[in-house]
Design goal:
The complex is a heterodimer of chains A (51) and B (225).
Chain A (H helix, E strand, L loop, with lengths): L1 H17 L6 E2 L2 H11 L2 E7 L3
Chain B lengths: L8 H7 L2 E7 L4 H6 L7 E5 L5 E6 L4 H12 L5 H10 L4 H14 L2 H14 L8 H14 L3 H14 L6 H15 L2 H14 L6 H20 L1
Antiparallel strand pairs in B: 2-3
Helix pairs in contact in B: 4-5, 5-6, 5-7, 6-7, 7-8, 8-9, 9-10, 10-11
The chains are: A alpha+beta (51), B mainly alpha (225).
Chain lengths: 51, 225
């Protein structure tokens, strides 16, 4: 019983916590580049057309 | 992409390892021009200084999208990787096609044309299954450089060489568009009509009909003047 409760709690904390999470977009490329340099990350630049 | 791919949890997980930036290419035309963005959506993987690693052009479902991004991050199937492979395997026509494809969408037309010509010259029977696309892309390279006369001639040739290709309707519609862009209205109308007659159920039939109507309107108003 305890194991089941722990497993459920673990599921909710790990899986449930990320459920519905979204990509955090940076809407300005210069800011994105600064952030990438600071965090030593690479960039994904999504070019889109609103139409 | 905004409806299905980017909200997918696999992409959300991937986004924690990168900085995801969005650029409206129609508004920020300088950036779109700088990176030779020729179609939307385009997702580019870049270093922190903005230098391109590689790009994904067009719609990709989430699994394919995450797989491709992971490949690029690991240095697999990037332009640099393919260029290295091509040095070791100069006779590999599939590799040449892949390279041409990369160059084309980056706006590096000399490299694209050389690669597609290599495929065409060495695979006249389309054993790779890519020669028809190489012929179409060779024409597209001229079109994207706004050399419409050359593009028209190449699209016609692509259709002649590979009449059974699934790209034949695309070759035909681009001939019409090329004439329209060159201001050759009568030839454009005839070519759009030819498209409609040949492919009455073609996916560009509405586009062809709209442009016939538009061009006929322009033609008659210029005659009145």
């Amino acid at each position: 019983m305890t194991k089941k409760v722990l497993a459920l709690t673990g599921f909710l904390l790990l899986g449930g916590a990320s459920w519905g999470a979204e990509v955090e977009w940076v809407m300005d490329l210069n800011s994105a580049m600064q952030q990438a340099q600071k965090e030593h990350k690479k960039l994904l630049i999504a070019f889109y057309s609103p139409t | 992409m905004d409806k299905e791919t980017y909200p997918d949890q696999r992409v959300v997980v991937l986004s924690k390892k990168l900085i995801f930036a969005k650029v409206n290419g129609k508004e920020d035309t300088l950036l779109a021009q700088k990176y030779s963005i020729g179609g939307y959506p385009t997702a580019m993987i870049a270093n922190a200084d903005g230098s391109e690693i590689d790009r994904i052009v067009g719609y990709y479902p989430a699994d394919e999208f995450t797989g491709t991004v992971k490949d690029y991050l690991a240095g697999r199937n990037t332009l640099a990787d393919l260029e290295k492979q091509a040095l070791k395997n100069p006779d590999d026509l599939l590799l040449a096609f892949k390279l041409g494809d990369k160059y084309l969408w980056r706006g590096e037309y000399d490299g694209a044309e050389a690669a597609f010509r290599k495929v065409l010259e060495n695979d006249k029977e389309n054993k790779t299954g890519k020669a028809d696309t190489a012929a179409h892309y060779l024409a597209l390279a001229a079109y994207r450089q706004k050399d419409y006369a050359e593009a028209i001639s190449r699209f016609i040739k692509a259709k002649e060489i590979f009449p059974q290709s699934p790209l034949s309707p695309d070759n035909d519609i681009y001939v019409a568009i090329g004439y329209e862009k060159s201001g050759e209205i009568q030839k454009a109308i005839e070519s759009y009509q030819k498209y409609l007659d040949t492919y009455p159920e073609g996916e560009d039939r509405d586009y062809a009909q709209e442009h016939i109507d538009k061009l006929k309107g322009q033609d008659s108003s210029s005659e009145k003047k």
